[in-house]
Amino acid sequence: MLHAVLAVYILCFAGGVALIVVSLFASRRFSLAGFRDFALLVAAATLIMIAEASKTYERAVALDFGDGLHVAGVVLAVIGNIGVTWYLLTLALKAVNTRPSRAQDIARGALAGAIGLLGGVTEAAPILWSEAGPGIVLGNADYIALLGVHVFAAGILLSGFKKIENEWLRSFVHTLLVLLGVFVPLAAVQLVVLDIPTSPDSVRNYPLAELTYYLVFVIVALTFILRFFVQPSRSSGITLPEDFIRRFGISHRESEIIDLMAKGFSNSGIAQRLFISTVTVKNHVYHIYQKTGAENKVQLLNMMNSSK
Fold first, then answer.
1. Is pLDDT at 19 greater than 90 in this prediction?
2. 8 A C-beta contact, residue 8 and residue 219
3. What residues contact residue 81 under an 8 Å CB cut-off, 6+ apart?
4. Cβ neighbours of residue 89 under 8 Å, at least 6 residues apart?
5. Helix pair 297-306, 252-262: axis angle to 10 deg
6. How far apart are CA 237 and CA 259, in angstroms?
7. Helix axis angle, 167-194 relative to 208-226, nearest 10°?
8. Whole-number Å distance between alpha carbons of 127 and 132
């Protein structure tokens, strides 16, 4: 059993590294900050998995590797829990095009810090409670807190699902919500099973729910992101008059943006559709107005229509 679990850990780590590399490469190719945030989220989750792997091996072979391992686990848990909390909520808000206020950013940072410290205390439990264990709830406090963060992020995605304009992102979020809908109840059941003295050692010693979730998540995310590199160009089917394009020297990218503006897309919607950042869209719109002399979207579209 131990060897099978260790093999799954290796698959998880290999998949996590691949996902981080692909996400960073995608962020450079498509100029989306969300891919960088996603890479950092996976990196933080991988740190937690490393801490879990060391504890799993220690329990499985019934050995105590000393305080050094626990101290390393504390550091990994603090950084990992902070990263997962911050970036999971950040990505959920970005997906539904919600810009948090400064107060909300501070609250999110405070929550991430609190869960990070909670993770550190939980990992230090074998040192702090050397004779008597801290109990199932305190011993898994950070685990319960992270489950709450996942539920909170799922709530953000569900409530703002209709705001997601990009079809690819809608499909990915839908798949992620289904995955969370399966994982969260399983993780809760695992906590209950851990507290039952008659539970099999294989269940008590190995974080099967987390391993399954992490591995499936990595596979799903890699599948979705790799589609960027195999799909044809995502142009919007430009319908601008040729005379308008020649007259004002409109570039191909500017033509795509004007076409999407005419179809009613917002700046964030255009960014999602063309896989560029919202700031890049705003820069293109500014240059379009400079070239054409238009003062707003309505005037620009009127000028375009008059060229037909």
1. yes
2. no
3. 44, 48, 112, 115, 116, 118, 119, 142, 145, 146
4. 108, 111, 112, 149, 152, 153, 156
5. 100
6. 8
7. 170
8. 10
Rg (CA), the chain: 24
Cβ contact 267:285 at 8 Å: yes
- CATH, domain range 242-306: 1.10.10.10
When pLDDT is averaged across residues 237-253 and rounded to a whole number, the result is 81
Residue located via tokens 């191909």? 252
Distance between CA atoms of residues 289 and 250, nearest Å: 11
- Determine the topology of domain 2-229 in CATH: Rhopdopsin 7-helix transmembrane proteins (1.20.1070)
Tokens of 84: 């997962």
Extents of the domains making up the chain: 2-229, 242-306
Global confidence as pTM: 0.73
pLDDT in tens, 86-98: 999 999 998 887 8
